[in-house]
Amino acid sequence: MGNTCLNCDYSIDENFCRNCGQKKFKRIDKKYVTDELQYLLIHTNKGFLYTVKKLIKSPGATARDFIDGNRVNHYKPLLLAFVLSGISAFISFKIVGLNTIMREFYTGQHMNSPFMNDYMAVTSSYNSVIMLFLVPIFALTTWLAFHKWKNNYYEHIVMNAYILSTYTLVTIVFVYPILYLLRHNSNSFTTVASLVTLLVPFIILWFFRGFYPDKPLKQIIWRVLAVVGLTLVAFSILMVILMVFVMVYVFMQGPEGAKYFLPTQV
């Protein structure tokens, strides 16, 4: 057993199978588990912290470095966006209590339907997570705006993963501490929470200024404005699709289902 690869039955005379690359058989023991945990922690922290540090300094240059092929020290961009979005959701839900505060605030206004109250509370609380799933759409808007500068759509997916990661980092480091301090003042809390998305155009501008340092700032600004416009169009289309599903739901549920979408009464 020790001299035969358990994956492909190839004869092994070294630590790895020369045919498929699998390690030579070794019984799992304390040292094996310790080595695995040590590798996981050191490798993950090294790549994660290295990339976070680079992002704080210049997200655009970091993405450019990765796309141009210097990737050995970088944390994978899509995984980075996923991890940071998870951290953001945890802080938002468990520490800041953003979802609960926003839902109570909107419900107390007696202006919206229960559906709109829940919709606004969820979108405010899980903004980074929602944006994570919309990265392919964001990538399409930036690709359309910047396509003359020769980066393909899939490279723009990577760019938007870095943009989202930068936005999430800014939210975690700067916005959530402010919201935590304001959690007992609902008016100030909701004002700050509602204005967070206004950071996005500035982060996009910061990113592409670093990604295309040789391009005129004026051209970058115009393209960022185009990204904002295209994003608004994309969101309008998504909202229309959402409303169609809502109407179908109301039709299927009858009068009881319609109450969820009618404004609440004082």
Can you describe this structure?
- With 266 residues, the protein is mainly α.
- The chain has a domain at 76-261.
- The protein has 12 helices and no strands.
- It has helices at 30-57, 59-67, 77-96, 98-109, 114-125, 127-133, 135-146, 153-181, 186-195, 199-211, 217-253, 255-258.
- The mean pLDDT is 80.
Helix/sheet category: mainly alpha
N→C terminal distance: 76 Å
Largest sheet: none
Order of helices and strands: HHHHHHHHHHHH
Uncertain runs are none
Average of pLDDT: 80
* DSSP strand content: under 5%
Number of helices: 12
Radius of gyration: 24 Å
Helix content: over 70%
**Shape category:** globular
Find the count of extended strands (DSSP E, 2+ residues).
0
Chart the SSEs and their pairings.
Layout: H1 30-57, H2 59-67, H3 77-96, H4 98-109, H5 114-125, H6 127-133, H7 135-146, H8 153-181, H9 186-195, H10 199-211, H11 217-253, H12 255-258
Key phrases:
single chain; 266 residues
Short description:
The protein is mainly alpha-helical. It contains twelve helices and no strands. The protein has helices at 30-57, 59-67, 77-96, 98-109, 114-125, 127-133, 135-146, 153-181, 186-195, 199-211, 217-253, 255-258.
